[in-house]
Design brief:
The structure holds two protein chains of two kinds.
Chain A (H helix, E strand, L loop, with lengths): L1 H36 L6 H5 L10 H8 L1 H33 L6 H13 L2 H11 L6 H8 L14 H25 L4 H9 L4 H12 L1 H16 L3 H6 L11 H11 L3 H29 L3
Helix pairs in contact in A: 1-14, 4-8, 4-11, 4-13, 5-8, 9-10, 11-14, 13-14
Chain B lengths: L1 H28 L21 H8 L3 H32 L5 H11 L8 H10 L6 H9 L2 H11 L4 H9 L4 H30 L2 H6 L8 H11 L4 H21 L1 H14 L1
Helix pairs in contact in B: 1-12, 2-12, 3-6, 3-7, 3-9, 7-9, 7-13, 8-9, 9-12, 9-13, 11-12
Classes of the chains: A mainly alpha, B mainly alpha.
């Protein structure tokens, strides 16, 4: 028995060792080094010869706070979070309620169809949507013209570009949240809703007083995940708008990419990365606190 | 009965709107160059042609990018499984000192987005001489905390008596993992393999950063580069999008049960 214990301990470290080493070397160490890097002036000269590297304290942060493009990127990302999160959560919840409806026939078919965009390649569907949103030939503007609206210069106007990208992001990602909501909805007893219906509660009243309270923790989970995803938008603006027009779709991550890998200001880029992490952490903690006060968890 | 039809029709309509962009992508990819630049936009090609695919594979060498993507995703999947499956099992079933504390640290680390460490990781790989190589592109897939998490969750349901019986019979821990645990884990291994294959296939930001040489590009990186040069060539771009996304879409449709079940195991119970 004693030998067995010992064998287990050794096997435990042998089996976890490779993964833990990889996580330490390729994930935790770089993340921590990001903070250290942000206090240096690491740039293209330091890349050639680390002798040019200097410790500059908070200078990178001070410069960022004076950089209008950084503020533009932060504002854009916060807009994506503020508009995108409720939009996507509501979209996903409605889709889940539709698929969960007890009158629905061929449920698995609709579930897969609605989920499909999530597994497609982001770059490929961004290219498709860039075309769908084309001002002159796009299908979206064609549909708008049928009801007498538009044409909207979706990706070419600074006011429409952000909603246009959100439309695409919503289409691409609602299926994932829908599956999570669906699992939660299936735990809500049908009798509860039935009782409310007999009491004369309308559709919206049942949603508000029966369904939502029952799935509140899932709503919180999905919102937290969506906020993090909204802060991490990069490929969408990179492919669809290249941050434009007039920098209206430069996100924090896009700014970090350009700072780090276009201009090779790695010190400054690391400072952006660290600030992004703080933003995500702050918003997530705020959500948790709100949820606690509301009694969701 | 009436209600049943209304709800089902509504669902069908929503599903059609959802997959319409994908159907249109396929349709336009078969149109002659310039055909799609019309108003109102044509829904089906007048004379379906393979010209765009011919151009894509002939002039732009898409076969090379397709092979690159296949290679990177296959290696990423294999390596991720080798690293995370034994670790997930050990965290669930083997008793060793520091296990629970280490696991709690891993869970806490899940809060940190991978992009935070991208710049230092780039410098680290540059020092190791792995920039502009497939090895550099594969590195993030070795450090899959989510995979460990998923496998551990699944292993918790394996009865201890089964393992104890094997130990009493004198089986070593490695043999127990190979002969007793792995067969039980097949569903979750398929799920995890599917997750990693699809995510590494679809991944864009990291390969964009680490692969500088055009000959090493994966499909998404090549497609993004191509789409910046050929903004007007809609039909060609749609063909590129089809080649990029169809393999993973088919893989998902074939194995969707594993994918959707795993998604729930990973996000809800976790």
């Amino acid at each position: 028995m004693n030998a067995g214990r010992h064998g287990q301990a050794r096997a435990g470290w042998v089996m976890t060792g490779p993964a833990l080493t990889a996580i330490l070397v390729f994930f935790i160490l770089p993340a921590a080094a990001s903070l250290a890097l942000s206090f240096t002036d690491f740039d293209i000269y330091a890349l050639a010869d680390t002798g040019n590297l200097r410790f500059v304290g908070l200078q990178n942060y001070e410069r960022l706070l004076e950089n209008p493009l950084f503020w533009k990127a932060t504002t854009n990302s916060l807009l994506f979070v503020a508009i995108g999160t409720p939009f996507i959560v509501v979209l996903s919840l409605f889709a889940a309620m539709l698929v969960n409806s007890r009158w629905l026939a061929w449920r698995p078919l609709w579930r897969v169809a609605l989920f499909a965009p999530y597994v497609t390649t982001l770059v490929a569907t961004a290219v498709v949507w860039r075309y769908l949103l084309h001002t002159r030939y796009g299908l979206v503007n064609y549909l708008l013209s049928l009801v007498g609206a538009g044409p909207v210069d979706w990706l070419g106007s600074p006011t429409a570009s952000l909603p246009a990208i959100l439309l695409f992001v919503g289409w691409k990602s609602f299926g994932y949240n829908m599956i999570i909501f669906l699992a939660a909805l299936q735990t809500v007893p049908r009798e509860l809703e039935e009782a409310a219906r007999i009491d004369g509660a309308g559709w919206f009243a049942r949603l508000r007083h029966v369904t939502l309270p029952a799935i509140a923790p899932t709503v919180l989970l999905v919102s937290v995940l969506t906020v993090a995803a909204m802060f991490q938008l990069f490929t969408e603006p990179y492919v669809m708008t290249q941050g434009g027009p007039a920098q209206s779709t430069v996100t924090i991550l896009y700014f970090m990419y350009e700072e780090g890998f276009k201009w090779w200001n790695l010190g400054s880029g690391a400072a952006v990365a660290f600030l992004l992490f703080l933003c995500i952490l702050a918003v997530t903690l705020m959500q948790l606190r709100l949820a606690k006060r509301g009694g969701a968890i | 009965m009436m209600r049943r039809w209304t709800v089902t029709l509504l669902a069908a309509f929503v599903a059609l709107v959802t997959i319409a962009p994908l159907l249109w992508m396929v349709s336009v990819s078969f149109m002659a160059p310039g055909e799609a630049a019309r108003f109102p936009p044509p829904l089906l090609p007048e004379n379906a042609t393979l010209e765009n695919y011919r151009q894509l594979f002939g002039t732009y060498g898409a076969l090379r990018f397709l092979a690159n993507s296949l290679l990177v995703s296959t290696l990423a999947t294999t390596l991720a499984l080798l690293f995370t499956v034994p670790a997930g099992y050990a965290f669930a079933k083997l008793r060793f000192r520091g296990r629970d504390a280490t696991f709690r640290l891993l869970v806490a680390a899940l809060v940190v987005p991978a992009q935070i460490g991208m710049l230092p990781l780039f410098l680290e790989l540059k020092a190791m001489g792995l920039v502009n190589s497939y090895a550099g592109a594969l590195v993030p897939w070795l450090a899959g905390i989510f995979g460990i998490f998923l496998v551990r969750q699944y292993c918790l349901s394996i009865p201890d008596e089964m393992l104890e019986a094997a130990r009493i019979d004198g089986a070593g821990e490695g043999a127990i993992l190979r002969r007793i645990v792995l067969p039980v884990l097949t569903p979750i291994i398929v799920t995890l393999a599917l997750f990693v294959f699809l995510s590494s296939w679809n991944d864009f930001m990291w390969p964009l950063i680490i692969l500088a040489d055009q000959r090493l590009y994966t499909l998404p990186v090549a497609l993004a580069a191509l789409s910046r040069e050929h903004v007007q060539d809609n039909e060609l771009m749609m063909a590129g999008a089809v080649v990029t996304t169809l393999p993973v879409l088919i893989l998902f449709l074939a194995l969707q049960r594993f994918y959707l079940n795993g998604l729930l195991a990973g996000s809800v119970k976790g």
